[in-house]
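Please fill in the sequence for the structure shown.

STRUCTURE ENCODING:
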């Protein structure tokens, strides 16, 4: 007797094994997803964008890839493109469940999103005007005062625990580290907040962070926000 043929099942493409492409600019906020990709151990290709010209190394107009013009941008192997840092890092984390973000739907995950939103609006976009040469000095000083209030809030948190969410490094730490990393260049003195200085050193010492740092700084391009 001939055994019936097993039903044809389409081979499952494992999203975990597919290659993603990260559009980044050295030292920009895209450092956060770059760190997350190394920390997650995912295979990826990093594509450098020159933010002064909005062009890739081969001359491609970056606006043709991301009409928003900014980095980061994540491209999946089916061509799908995802923008907005706080979303990109969660996507990366969810490709390696249980490593860089709490499970979707849990209260802890909302805590992570709370951090990502805080970092985006209260740190990242408060630092941004410090990059622009046409920002008046008085505005820069006002921004630094606003940032100081956020540092007052953050310092005791990272004094009592190694990472924003407690004992475990998450993508929120990748994001905060990438933004606070701008401090020396932008003349934001973190020394009145020693736990934040130690936090930066602690995160910088992680192997995934070192790899991302080395990858970004083997090439020269100006950081910009
Ligand atoms: N809302 C965006 C902001 C990203 C952003 O500010 N990117 C900066 C670098 S840190 C950038 O590419 N600026 C250049 C430009 O806007 O053309 C996100 O969260 O991803």
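FILLED IN BY: designer on duty
SEQUENCE:
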């Amino acid at each position: 007797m001939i055994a019936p043929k097993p039903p044809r099942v389409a081979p499952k493409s494992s999203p975990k094994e597919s290659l993603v492409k990260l559009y980044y600019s050295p030292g920009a906020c895209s450092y956060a997803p770059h760190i997350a990709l190394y920390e997650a151990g995912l295979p990826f290709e990093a594509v450098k964008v020159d933010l002064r010209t909005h062009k890739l190394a081969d001359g491609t107009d970056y606006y043709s890839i991301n009409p928003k013009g900014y980095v980061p941008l994540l491209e999946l192997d089916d061509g799908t493109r995802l923008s907005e840092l706080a979303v990109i890092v969660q996507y990366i984390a969810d490709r390696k469940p249980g490593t860089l973000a709490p499970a979707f739907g849990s209260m802890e995950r909302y805590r992570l999103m709370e951090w990502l939103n805080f970092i985006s609006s209260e740190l990242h976009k408060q630092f941004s005007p410090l990059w622009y040469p046409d920002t008046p000095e008085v505005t820069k000083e006002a921004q630094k005062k606003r940032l100081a209030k956020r540092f007052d809030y953050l310092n005791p948190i990272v004094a009592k625990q190694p990472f924003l969410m407690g004992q475990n490094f998450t993508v929120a730490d990748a994001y905060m580290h990438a933004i606070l990393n701008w401090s020396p260049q932008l003349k934001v003195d973190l020394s009145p907040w020693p736990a934040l200085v130690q936090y930066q050193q602690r995160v910088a010492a992680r192997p995934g962070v070192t790899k991302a740092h080395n990858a970004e700084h083997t090439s020269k391009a100006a950081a910009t926000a």
